[in-house]
Amino acid sequence: MKQFGIIGTAMVTVFALAGAAHAATIQVKGSDTLINLVQRLAEVYMEQADDSIAVTGGGSGTGIAAVINRKCDIANSSRLMKTSEIQKAQTGGVDVKYIAVAIDGLCVIVSAANPVKNLTKQQIGAIYRGEITNWQEVGGVNMPITLYGRQSNSGTYVFFMESVLKGDYSKKMNRANGNAQIVESVRADESGIGYVGVGYIKNDSRGVTVVKVAAQDGADYLSPLDSAAVNSGRYPLARPLYQYLNGTPKGAVRDFLAFELSPKGQRIVEEEGFFPLPQEYIDFNNKVMGK
Amino acid sequence: MKHAEAVKKYRARKIEERFFHSLFFINGILVIVVLAGIFAILLKTAAPAFREIDLREFFFTVHWDPAGYEKESYGIIAMLVSTFLVTLGALAIAIPIGIGAAAYLCDVAGPRVREIAKPLIEVLAAIPSVVLGFIGIVVVNPMLAKFFRQPNGLNAVNGSILLAIMALPTIISITEDALVSVPRSFEQASLALGATKWQTIIRVKIPAALSGIIAACMLGMGRAIGETMTVLMATGCAPALPTSYLHAVRTMTATIAIELGEVPYYSTHYYGLFAIGLTLFIITFMINLVADLVLHNFQKMQR
Question: Which of A38, A253, B176, B202 is an S-S bond match for B102, by CB 3.0 to 4.6 Å?
Fold first, then answer.
């Protein structure tokens, strides 16, 4: 589907360039977690607008680097920019602004054959730091744990490191190139554990179990597939997904962002498996959009 | 009159001669210019890295983690070991098969088999590396997992097998050329002395063609050590120091490919990646140099 989307985008781009010279081309780059969602938003948006939108992936780090180096209009990112990155952007004269576009309930997944269904946030952290190395230690069978995670250019990698691990990843973690590869790996590996955006698992979770996560010992184990738990913010790995821009949005970029944040756009967010924005983020976005 | 015409013709030929001489000279020198240019850029961009990273840290510490939680670390031992594990593994698989296949094509196979097999082997070289990487994930991965009773097969063996497949066409085709160019009299003399065909191939033809075979293996190694996409996809990319072929590895090329896209320009991390590239360049350069010297000595000995 992603491939078709890309081909479609390319074709639309070509037609738009040939047909209407005034229509703008918007370059969107970054997060692998967001790519399918933004691709879909762009497709629907382009049905009713002249502008063409090209969405590519590469990871949040790649998108953010592209905004700093002025190589794209919108950077998808599943993490906030680091202070050092903001400084770098300012030195280059880039006025960094961002909006939240959707809420993700980050899913921790294990093989469906694994009896472990519940984990606390602390346990997940210890597993990924390499301190817990056998499933037995968290109530499973006697089997070494195989870790699957992302590359360092992933925003999810950074988010997970900062909010769950609070330390360095185990050096033994296998580093996959994207969410889809993690799902595939865990599906094939009985001893595996991985983390992916909810959009990659909600509509097709065969072969894997989405682990219920508790914020700490004694707290409720909650599933990221439970929209009430995510919307209320009680699911411990819920996080906003962002889009970074250079300056207050105007013109075509502004139109597209407005579409994403409209009820229609947010309905697509839900269809793709993510969660719509709560009021606090809507208020925040309105301020950025200058409403 | 006739004489003048001849002189004219001679002059025209001389100009033509000179033109082609300089054309080939430029072509020849161009490669060297490009090589020098690449080396200069690498050196220039890698140099700041050694101002910002301690040389001892770079060459003698194990872990590379510029996005670390507590501190950044810039050590290349783990990826150096990974690169060598995968490359040597690939050669261990590709050299015996490659020489065997070449000897078969040259001396055993009938002309018809050879006519079909040789182009087919060359087609193998045309498979894009990303396709091989995909095969590594989808086909080799579960096979290795089952065979070695591991949870998954994304490890150094997987990378070695795929790189061996990539190096095979080079090794087979150059080895075959070397075997074919062994004078027929060697073979005839050996057979006349009562040696079997097997003995002739192993004891006479292969030693006689050794210089070409070494060159073939070195070129195959060059292909394997610099390959990026397949190893990136199929070896698991864990940055830990591998201690066995069944561990996931992350090679130097994979590290550069993964991190160069996200790195802010002109940061320590950026320069560090170029320093890795420079190290890789120097390693391949040394391998080629040594191969050349070996070849040269061998040819002298033969005479």
Answer: B176
